[in-house]
């Protein structure tokens, strides 16, 4: 695994990803599985993760942007392998390219349905459109008051042959907080939106609303398709819900660096920009060559954990663009020794969730922000 010494690497365990997909499928046995691979698969690398998820039984891939969806098709993932849905559109987007690439597009407003229909007409194809209902998240999607009009216009476009409504879908606001009153309200609003559309004559292939937390905790929300993202990468949607192991999941990404320097420093020595840390005694300092330029949150300065020489240490002072320092308490690991920033945790290393807590954020953001300067190394054991 460590043949090439690298400054820093993100090891991506594709066997863990496949096992996570199987564990999630077992929780939603009657639903199809859409692997959500937006934002470069939450920082894990879109194409290898998409292919691994398909091997483990996913039949759909989901992205936010049309560019992400087009990249999946351009890489050779055909309609025989995966249906692809992308949901984040802006006016003037690549509707025609998406339709010609057999990508399903989402419409949560009339303008989007009209752009999809116009592009389909121009291409001489039928656009496969999924209608998005805002059942209470208050983000994308069509409000209940506007739903009848969107359904009416969809029926007209279907009659014209430019559009087929292949899905009806929505998204939860608080599925990671079991018992939150918005969950039942959104579930009821979704059931109503589906019933209205079907009574009006639409015949969607799939109805779906379940993200990771709903896949894990809300069987009634599974419908025809579940759309897990974070859980597939082995991270719990929220620590209150349970640990990854509680759900049979294993973190997929390990962020490992090579210690760049170990040196003695006297008591009272300031460390890193602003001197927010001073050595409390004569000690040894270690330089970890990873910084916010690699996607580490600078907000974890003075708090982020890292395993070096069998002990978890804490970032001393500020995280800089390319590096940070740890107080090694007199220990003398060698330059080149491994510094494990986060991983599954079974070697005693911190987890992405630990970094999230150190930076007052969520683990989603920790893995997703690991940047393009960090090479991904795919392991498959
Ligand atoms: C990101 C996203 C998901 C996956 O959410 P997780 O919480 O990571 O499972 C599902 N559906 C939509 C619409 C999304 O944007």
UniProtKB/TrEMBL annotation:
The keyword Nucleotidyltransferase does not apply. Keywords: Isomerase, Pyridoxal phosphate. The keyword Isomerase applies. It holds the Pfam family Ala_racemase_C. GO terms for cellular component: cytosol. The modification N6-(pyridoxal phosphate)lysine is found at residue 38. GO terms for biological process: D-alanine biosynthetic process; peptidoglycan biosynthetic process. Residues 252-379 form the Alanine racemase C-terminal domain. Substrate binds at residues 139, 321. It is an enzyme of class 5 (isomerase). The active site is at residues 38, 273. Pathway: Amino-acid biosynthesis; D-alanine biosynthesis; D-alanine from L-alanine: step 1/1. Its EC number is 5.1.1.1. It catalyses: L-alanine = D-alanine. SMART domains: Ala_racemase_C (SM01005). SUPFAM superfamilies: Alanine racemase C-terminal domain-like (SSF50621), PLP-binding barrel (SSF51419). It comes from the Bacteria. Catalyzes the interconversion of L-alanine and D-alanine. May also act on other amino acids. Belongs to the alanine racemase family. This is Alanine racemase.
């Amino acid at each position: 695994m460590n043949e090439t010494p690298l400054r820093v690497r993100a090891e991506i365990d594709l066997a863990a990803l496949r096992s996570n997909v199987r564990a999630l499928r077992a929780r939603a046995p009657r639903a199809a599985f859409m692997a959500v691979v937006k934002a470069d698969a939450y920082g894990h690398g879109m194409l290898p993760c998409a292919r691994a998820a398909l091997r483990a039984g996913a039949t759909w891939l989901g992205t936010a942007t049309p560019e992400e969806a087009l990249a999946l098709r351009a890489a050779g993932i055909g309609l025989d392998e995966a249906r692809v849905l992308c949901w984040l559109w802006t006016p003037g987007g690549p509707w025609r390219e998406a339709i010609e690439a057999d990508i399903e597009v989402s419409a949560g407003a009339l303008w989007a349905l009209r752009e999809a229909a116009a592009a389909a007409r121009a291409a001489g194809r039928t656009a496969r459109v999924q209608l998005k209902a805002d059942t209470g998240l208050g983000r994308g999607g069509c409000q209940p008051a506007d739903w009848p009009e969107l359904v009416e216009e969809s029926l007209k476009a279907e009659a014209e042959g430019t559009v087929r409504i292949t899905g009806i879908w929505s998204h939860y606001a608080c599925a990671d907080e079991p018992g939150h009153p918005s969950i039942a309200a959104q579930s009821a609003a979704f059931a109503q939106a589906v019933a209205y559309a079907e009574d009006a004559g639409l015949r969607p292939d799939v109805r779906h609303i379940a993200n990771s937390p709903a896949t894990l905790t809300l069987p009634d929300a599974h419908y025809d398709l579940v759309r897990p993202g974070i859980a597939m990468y082995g991270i719990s949607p929220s620590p209150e819900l349970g640990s990854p192991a509680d759900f049979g999941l294993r973190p997929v990404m390990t962020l490992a660096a090579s210690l760049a320097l170990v040196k003695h420093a006297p008591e009272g020595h300031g460390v890193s920009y602003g001197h927010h840390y001073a050595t409390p005694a004569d000690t040894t300092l270690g330089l970890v060559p990873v910084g916010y330029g690699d996607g580490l949150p600078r907000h974890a300065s003075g708090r982020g954990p890292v395993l070096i020489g069998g002990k978890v240490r804490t970032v001393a002072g500020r995280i800089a663009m390319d590096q940070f320092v740890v107080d090694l308490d007199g220990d003398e690991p060698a330059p080149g020794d491994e510094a494990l920033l986060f991983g599954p945790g079974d070697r005693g290393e911190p987890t992405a969730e630990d970094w999230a807590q150190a930076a007052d954020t969520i683990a989603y953001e920790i893995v997703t922000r690991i940047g393009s300067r960090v090479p991904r190394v795919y392991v498959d054991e």
